UniProtKB/TrEMBL annotation:
Record's protein name: HotDog domain-containing protein
InterPro entries reported for this sequence: ACOT13, HotDog_dom_sf, PAAI_dom, Thioestr_dom
Domain Thioesterase as annotated: residue spans: 53-124
Similarity field: Belongs to the thioesterase PaaI family.
Gene Ontology molecular function, alphabetical: fatty acyl-CoA hydrolase activity
NCBIfam families, per database record: unchar_dom_1 (TIGR00369)
Pfam families: 4HBT
Domain of life of the native organism: Eukaryota
Organism from which the protein derives: Lobosporangium transversale
Residue stretches spanning the membrane: none
């Protein structure tokens, strides 16, 4: 299965669960994906703003979380693991109507941990930089089961 199609399938499964991601990032658009890398966009809407009218840090942190997961999915993983560490540096601001460009990369999927980074920009200006580490040992078992079941 092509990488973008696979990542779209994983993202659709996130949204179907109707959890936090579905309420916060339902308008996230996947643009492209290749081995270990995912590119997405999100238009900043009113629900994404803090009380001062800027893009909320919690939204940017959520994007780092989800972006890291989607980069792991782009590494041919069906399940994407459990967060163990998330770091976000807020570099600049974004406002209502801005389009956030999100580049997520998975640097390594090991036996226990996966390491990712996420860059969020607006018009090539860095808004936030994040790193996301996930525990994937259990995810490997789920992935092996999916492959055995023929659910590529």
């Amino acid at each position: 299965m092509p990488t973008l199609k696979h990542v779209q399938k994983v993202w659709t499964n996130f949204l179907k669960k109707e959890g936090f991601e579905a309420h916060t990032l339902s308008s996230l658009r996947l643009i492209s994906a290749s081995k270990g890398t995912c590119v997405a966009e999100l238009n900043v809407a009113s629900q994404h703003l803090n009380r001062l009218g800027g893009c909320h840090g919690g939204l940017l942190s959520t994007i780092v979380d989800v972006g890291g997961s989607l980069a792991i999915a782009a590494s041919d993983m069906h399940a994407t693991g459990i967060s163990t560490d998330l770091n976000v540096s807020f570099v600049s601001g974004a406002k209502l109507g801005d389009t956030l460009s999100i580049i997520s990369r998975c640097h390594k999927v090991g036996g226990s941990l996966a390491y990712t980074d996420v860059e969020i920009t607006v018009d090539e200006k860095v808004i936030a930089l994040g790193r996301h580490t996930k525990f994937v040992r259990i995810a490997h078992k789920a992935n092996a089961q999916k492959k055995m079941d023929g659910e590529e």
